[in-house]
Amino acid sequence: MLAAKRVIITGAGRGLGRAYAIAAAAAGASVVVGDIDTDAAEQTVAAIRASGGNGVAVTGSVADWAVARALTERCVQEFGGVDGVVANAAIMSTADPWDEAEDDLRAIAEVNILGVQFTARHAMRAMVESGRGGSVVTVVSGARDGIAGMSAYGASKGAVAAMTANWALAGHAHGIRVNAISPLGLTRMSQADHRSDRPPMPDPSRVAPVVTALLSDASAPLTGAVLRFDGTMLGRYDSSLHTFATSPAGWRGEDLAAALVLEAER
Ligand SMILES: NC(=O)c1ccc[n+]([C@@H]2O[C@H](COP(=O)([O-])OP(=O)(O)OC[C@H]3O[C@@H](n4cnc5c(N)ncnc54)[C@H](O)[C@@H]3O)[C@@H](O)[C@H]2O)c1
Fold it and tell me: Which end of the chain has the smaller Cβ count within 10 Å, N or C?
Protein backbone atom coordinates (compact mmCIF):
# COMPACT_ATOMS: atom_id res chain seq x y z
CA MET A 1 0.00 0.00 0.00
CA LEU A 2 2.95 2.35 0.60
CA ALA A 3 5.44 1.20 -2.04
CA ALA A 4 7.94 4.02 -2.80
CA LYS A 5 6.56 6.23 -0.02
CA ARG A 6 9.02 8.04 2.26
CA VAL A 7 7.56 8.70 5.71
CA ILE A 8 8.59 10.15 9.07
CA ILE A 9 7.05 8.78 12.25
CA THR A 10 7.88 10.38 15.61
CA GLY A 11 7.66 8.61 18.94
CA ALA A 12 8.25 5.42 16.96
CA GLY A 13 10.55 3.79 19.49
CA ARG A 14 7.69 2.17 21.36
CA GLY A 15 3.95 1.96 21.75
CA LEU A 16 1.66 3.04 18.96
CA GLY A 17 4.39 4.86 17.01
CA ARG A 18 6.48 1.69 16.82
CA ALA A 19 3.47 -0.24 15.51
CA TYR A 20 2.79 2.50 12.92
CA ALA A 21 6.42 2.39 11.76
CA ILE A 22 6.54 -1.40 11.48
CA ALA A 23 3.22 -1.50 9.63
CA ALA A 24 4.25 1.32 7.25
CA ALA A 25 7.55 -0.43 6.47
CA ALA A 26 5.75 -3.74 5.94
CA ALA A 27 3.49 -1.93 3.48
CA GLY A 28 6.56 -0.84 1.50
CA ALA A 29 7.41 2.58 2.94
CA SER A 30 10.90 3.77 3.79
CA VAL A 31 10.61 5.06 7.35
CA VAL A 32 12.46 7.65 9.43
CA VAL A 33 11.97 6.45 13.00
CA GLY A 34 12.07 9.43 15.37
CA ASP A 35 12.30 9.11 19.13
CA ILE A 36 13.92 10.81 22.09
CA ASP A 37 15.00 7.35 23.29
CA THR A 38 17.94 6.25 21.13
CA ASP A 39 17.83 2.55 22.10
CA ALA A 40 14.10 2.33 21.47
CA ALA A 41 14.44 4.01 18.05
CA GLU A 42 17.29 1.68 17.07
CA GLN A 43 15.24 -1.35 18.13
CA THR A 44 12.37 -0.30 15.91
CA VAL A 45 14.76 0.18 13.00
CA ALA A 46 16.25 -3.26 13.69
CA ALA A 47 12.76 -4.82 13.68
CA ILE A 48 11.96 -3.10 10.36
CA ARG A 49 15.22 -4.28 8.77
CA ALA A 50 14.83 -7.81 10.15
CA SER A 51 11.59 -8.02 8.17
CA GLY A 52 13.28 -6.78 5.01
CA GLY A 53 12.09 -3.18 5.34
CA ASN A 54 13.84 0.14 5.06
CA GLY A 55 14.31 2.37 8.13
CA VAL A 56 16.70 4.85 9.75
CA ALA A 57 16.64 6.39 13.22
CA VAL A 58 16.78 10.07 14.13
CA THR A 59 16.99 10.66 17.85
CA GLY A 60 16.26 13.72 19.96
CA SER A 61 13.26 15.66 21.16
CA VAL A 62 10.66 16.89 18.69
CA ALA A 63 10.44 19.97 20.89
CA ASP A 64 13.88 20.91 19.53
CA TRP A 65 13.55 22.78 16.20
CA ALA A 66 16.87 21.36 14.94
CA VAL A 67 15.80 17.77 15.71
CA ALA A 68 12.46 18.30 13.98
CA ARG A 69 14.30 19.71 10.95
CA ALA A 70 16.74 16.77 11.02
CA LEU A 71 13.80 14.33 10.69
CA THR A 72 12.92 15.88 7.33
CA GLU A 73 16.53 16.39 6.24
CA ARG A 74 17.36 12.75 6.92
CA CYS A 75 14.26 11.57 5.05
CA VAL A 76 15.29 13.64 2.01
CA GLN A 77 18.97 12.58 2.20
CA GLU A 78 18.31 8.87 2.72
CA PHE A 79 15.17 8.35 0.70
CA GLY A 80 14.95 11.33 -1.69
CA GLY A 81 11.89 13.14 -0.34
CA VAL A 82 9.02 13.18 2.13
CA ASP A 83 5.59 11.79 1.26
CA GLY A 84 4.16 11.42 4.74
CA VAL A 85 4.65 12.39 8.36
CA VAL A 86 3.01 11.01 11.49
CA ALA A 87 3.49 13.51 14.33
CA ASN A 88 2.85 10.93 17.02
CA ALA A 89 5.35 11.70 19.82
CA ALA A 90 3.68 12.99 22.96
CA ILE A 91 3.88 12.86 26.74
CA MET A 92 1.19 12.73 29.38
CA SER A 93 1.04 13.63 33.06
CA THR A 94 -1.95 13.71 35.34
CA ALA A 95 -2.97 16.20 38.02
CA ASP A 96 -5.97 18.14 39.18
CA PRO A 97 -5.88 21.54 37.45
CA TRP A 98 -5.09 23.35 40.70
CA ASP A 99 -2.17 21.01 41.44
CA GLU A 100 -0.40 21.31 38.08
CA ALA A 101 3.37 21.87 38.26
CA GLU A 102 4.92 24.55 36.05
CA ASP A 103 7.48 22.11 34.62
CA ASP A 104 4.80 19.60 33.62
CA LEU A 105 2.64 22.26 31.98
CA ARG A 106 5.62 23.59 30.00
CA ALA A 107 6.81 20.12 29.00
CA ILE A 108 3.40 19.06 27.70
CA ALA A 109 3.04 22.28 25.70
CA GLU A 110 6.58 21.96 24.31
CA VAL A 111 6.36 18.32 23.22
CA ASN A 112 2.69 17.89 22.39
CA ILE A 113 2.04 21.27 20.75
CA LEU A 114 5.35 22.76 19.59
CA GLY A 115 6.81 19.33 18.85
CA VAL A 116 3.93 18.52 16.51
CA GLN A 117 4.16 21.96 14.87
CA PHE A 118 7.95 21.72 14.45
CA THR A 119 7.82 18.18 13.02
CA ALA A 120 5.01 18.89 10.58
CA ARG A 121 6.30 22.34 9.64
CA HIS A 122 9.56 20.99 8.21
CA ALA A 123 7.90 18.01 6.56
CA MET A 124 5.19 20.16 4.95
CA ARG A 125 7.85 22.61 3.71
CA ALA A 126 9.54 19.71 1.89
CA MET A 127 6.16 18.58 0.49
CA VAL A 128 5.41 22.08 -0.82
CA GLU A 129 8.87 22.46 -2.36
CA SER A 130 8.68 19.07 -4.06
CA GLY A 131 5.36 19.99 -5.65
CA ARG A 132 4.17 16.46 -4.86
CA GLY A 133 2.18 17.15 -1.70
CA GLY A 134 1.81 14.41 0.89
CA SER A 135 -0.09 13.08 3.87
CA VAL A 136 0.17 14.48 7.40
CA VAL A 137 -1.23 12.43 10.27
CA THR A 138 -1.61 14.01 13.70
CA VAL A 139 -2.65 12.32 16.92
CA VAL A 140 -5.33 13.50 19.33
CA SER A 141 -7.06 11.90 22.31
CA GLY A 142 -10.46 11.58 23.93
CA ALA A 143 -8.92 13.72 26.71
CA ARG A 144 -9.57 16.85 24.61
CA ASP A 145 -13.25 16.38 25.47
CA GLY A 146 -12.47 16.06 29.18
CA ILE A 147 -10.96 13.25 31.23
CA ALA A 148 -10.50 14.03 34.93
CA GLY A 149 -6.85 14.73 35.74
CA MET A 150 -5.77 15.14 32.13
CA SER A 151 -6.48 18.82 31.48
CA ALA A 152 -2.98 19.82 30.32
CA TYR A 153 -2.67 16.79 28.07
CA GLY A 154 -6.24 17.24 26.81
CA ALA A 155 -5.58 20.91 26.06
CA SER A 156 -2.53 19.97 24.02
CA LYS A 157 -4.61 17.53 21.99
CA GLY A 158 -7.28 20.20 21.43
CA ALA A 159 -4.50 22.35 19.99
CA VAL A 160 -3.50 19.49 17.68
CA ALA A 161 -7.09 19.16 16.46
CA ALA A 162 -7.07 22.89 15.66
CA MET A 163 -3.77 22.56 13.77
CA THR A 164 -5.17 19.65 11.81
CA ALA A 165 -8.18 21.65 10.61
CA ASN A 166 -6.07 24.66 9.69
CA TRP A 167 -3.29 22.72 7.98
CA ALA A 168 -5.86 20.81 5.93
CA LEU A 169 -7.19 24.12 4.59
CA ALA A 170 -3.73 25.55 3.92
CA GLY A 171 -2.37 22.34 2.44
CA HIS A 172 -5.21 21.70 0.02
CA ALA A 173 -3.76 23.83 -2.81
CA HIS A 174 -0.43 22.00 -2.47
CA GLY A 175 -1.78 18.47 -2.45
CA ILE A 176 -1.10 18.13 1.26
CA ARG A 177 -3.81 16.38 3.20
CA VAL A 178 -4.00 16.38 6.98
CA ASN A 179 -6.00 14.08 9.22
CA ALA A 180 -5.95 13.28 12.92
CA ILE A 181 -6.34 9.92 14.57
CA SER A 182 -7.60 9.41 18.11
CA PRO A 183 -6.29 5.91 18.88
CA LEU A 184 -6.48 3.45 21.73
CA GLY A 185 -3.61 1.09 22.46
CA LEU A 186 -2.03 -0.79 25.32
CA THR A 187 1.21 1.16 25.78
CA ARG A 188 3.41 2.67 28.47
CA MET A 189 1.29 5.83 28.28
CA SER A 190 -2.10 4.15 28.54
CA GLN A 191 -0.88 1.96 31.39
CA ALA A 192 -0.34 5.17 33.38
CA ASP A 193 -4.09 5.87 33.07
CA HIS A 194 -5.57 4.27 36.18
CA ARG A 195 -9.25 5.17 35.61
CA SER A 196 -11.60 2.40 36.65
CA ASP A 197 -13.70 3.11 33.53
CA ARG A 198 -10.72 3.09 31.16
CA PRO A 199 -11.80 1.42 27.93
CA PRO A 200 -10.20 -1.91 26.96
CA MET A 201 -6.88 -1.30 25.22
CA PRO A 202 -6.06 -3.21 22.02
CA ASP A 203 -2.57 -4.22 20.99
CA PRO A 204 -1.05 -1.31 18.99
CA SER A 205 -0.60 -3.60 15.97
CA ARG A 206 -4.40 -3.70 15.63
CA VAL A 207 -4.55 0.11 15.43
CA ALA A 208 -1.64 0.62 13.03
CA PRO A 209 -3.53 -0.15 9.78
CA VAL A 210 -5.46 3.13 10.06
CA VAL A 211 -2.20 5.07 9.83
CA THR A 212 -1.04 3.00 6.87
CA ALA A 213 -4.36 3.77 5.20
CA LEU A 214 -4.06 7.52 5.90
CA LEU A 215 -0.51 7.63 4.55
CA SER A 216 -1.61 5.85 1.39
CA ASP A 217 -2.91 7.48 -1.79
CA ALA A 218 -5.76 4.98 -1.51
CA SER A 219 -7.43 7.36 1.01
CA ALA A 220 -6.49 10.52 -0.94
CA PRO A 221 -9.91 12.26 -0.93
CA LEU A 222 -9.99 12.49 2.89
CA THR A 223 -8.59 15.61 4.57
CA GLY A 224 -9.39 17.62 7.68
CA ALA A 225 -10.93 14.65 9.49
CA VAL A 226 -10.51 13.70 13.13
CA LEU A 227 -10.96 9.93 13.28
CA ARG A 228 -11.42 7.50 16.16
CA PHE A 229 -10.02 4.01 15.73
CA ASP A 230 -9.63 1.33 18.39
CA GLY A 231 -8.73 -1.56 16.12
CA THR A 232 -12.38 -2.50 15.70
CA MET A 233 -14.54 0.60 15.42
CA LEU A 234 -13.80 3.43 12.96
CA GLY A 235 -15.51 6.76 13.62
CA ARG A 236 -15.28 10.44 12.76
CA TYR A 237 -15.72 13.33 15.18
CA ASP A 238 -17.83 16.20 13.97
CA SER A 239 -17.56 19.71 15.35
CA SER A 240 -20.95 20.99 14.27
CA LEU A 241 -22.68 23.78 16.23
CA HIS A 242 -25.98 22.93 17.91
CA THR A 243 -28.17 26.05 18.10
CA PHE A 244 -30.72 25.68 20.90
CA ALA A 245 -32.42 29.09 21.14
CA THR A 246 -32.99 32.09 18.86
CA SER A 247 -34.46 35.54 19.54
CA PRO A 248 -34.51 37.93 16.55
CA ALA A 249 -35.35 40.85 18.89
CA GLY A 250 -32.17 40.31 20.93
CA TRP A 251 -31.71 38.89 24.42
CA ARG A 252 -31.89 40.06 28.04
CA GLY A 253 -29.59 38.38 30.54
CA GLU A 254 -32.52 36.87 32.43
CA ASP A 255 -33.90 35.24 29.27
CA LEU A 256 -30.48 33.91 28.30
CA ALA A 257 -30.09 32.43 31.78
CA ALA A 258 -33.51 30.75 31.46
CA ALA A 259 -32.52 29.33 28.05
CA LEU A 260 -29.24 28.05 29.53
CA VAL A 261 -31.10 26.29 32.34
CA LEU A 262 -33.45 24.66 29.83
CA GLU A 263 -30.43 23.48 27.84
CA ALA A 264 -28.74 22.15 30.99
CA GLU A 265 -31.88 20.17 31.85
CA ARG A 266 -32.34 18.73 28.39
N1 LIG B 1 -2.14 4.70 24.12
C2 LIG B 1 -3.36 5.21 23.97
O3 LIG B 1 -4.37 4.57 24.29
C4 LIG B 1 -3.53 6.60 23.40
C5 LIG B 1 -4.81 7.18 23.42
C6 LIG B 1 -4.99 8.43 22.85
C7 LIG B 1 -3.91 9.07 22.26
N8 LIG B 1 -2.67 8.50 22.27
C9 LIG B 1 -1.58 9.23 21.63
O10 LIG B 1 -0.86 8.31 20.82
C11 LIG B 1 0.50 8.75 20.72
C12 LIG B 1 1.43 7.61 21.10
O13 LIG B 1 1.16 7.26 22.45
P14 LIG B 1 1.67 5.90 23.14
O15 LIG B 1 0.55 5.43 23.98
O16 LIG B 1 2.27 5.03 22.12
O17 LIG B 1 2.81 6.51 24.10
P18 LIG B 1 4.17 5.85 24.63
O19 LIG B 1 4.56 6.67 25.84
O20 LIG B 1 4.03 4.39 24.79
O21 LIG B 1 5.20 6.13 23.45
C22 LIG B 1 5.55 7.46 23.12
C23 LIG B 1 6.91 7.47 22.44
O24 LIG B 1 7.24 8.83 22.18
C25 LIG B 1 8.57 9.09 22.59
N26 LIG B 1 8.72 10.48 22.96
C27 LIG B 1 8.28 11.07 24.10
N28 LIG B 1 8.65 12.35 24.12
C29 LIG B 1 9.33 12.59 22.98
C30 LIG B 1 9.96 13.74 22.44
N31 LIG B 1 9.98 14.89 23.10
N32 LIG B 1 10.55 13.63 21.22
C33 LIG B 1 10.55 12.45 20.55
N34 LIG B 1 9.97 11.32 21.03
C35 LIG B 1 9.37 11.40 22.22
C36 LIG B 1 8.80 8.14 23.75
O37 LIG B 1 10.19 7.89 23.98
C38 LIG B 1 8.03 6.89 23.30
O39 LIG B 1 8.85 6.02 22.57
C40 LIG B 1 0.60 10.00 21.57
O41 LIG B 1 0.40 11.15 20.78
C42 LIG B 1 -0.55 9.84 22.54
O43 LIG B 1 -0.96 11.09 23.06
C44 LIG B 1 -2.45 7.29 22.85
Answer: C
CB-based contacts of 182: which residues, under 8 Å, 6+ apart?
139, 140, 141, 142, 226, 227, 228, 229, 237
Tell me: the pLDDT tens digits for 55-83? 999 999 999 999 999 999 999 999 999 99
Q: What is the pLDDT of residues 3-19, one digit of tens each?
A: 999 999 999 999 999 99
Q: 235-265: b or e for each residue (b if 16 or more CB lie within 10 Å)?
A: eeeeeeeeeeeeeeeeeeeeeeeeeeeeeee
Q: How much distance in Å is there from the Cα of 15 to the middle of ligand 1?
A: 7
**Pocket flag, ligand 1, residue 72 (CB < 6 Å):** no
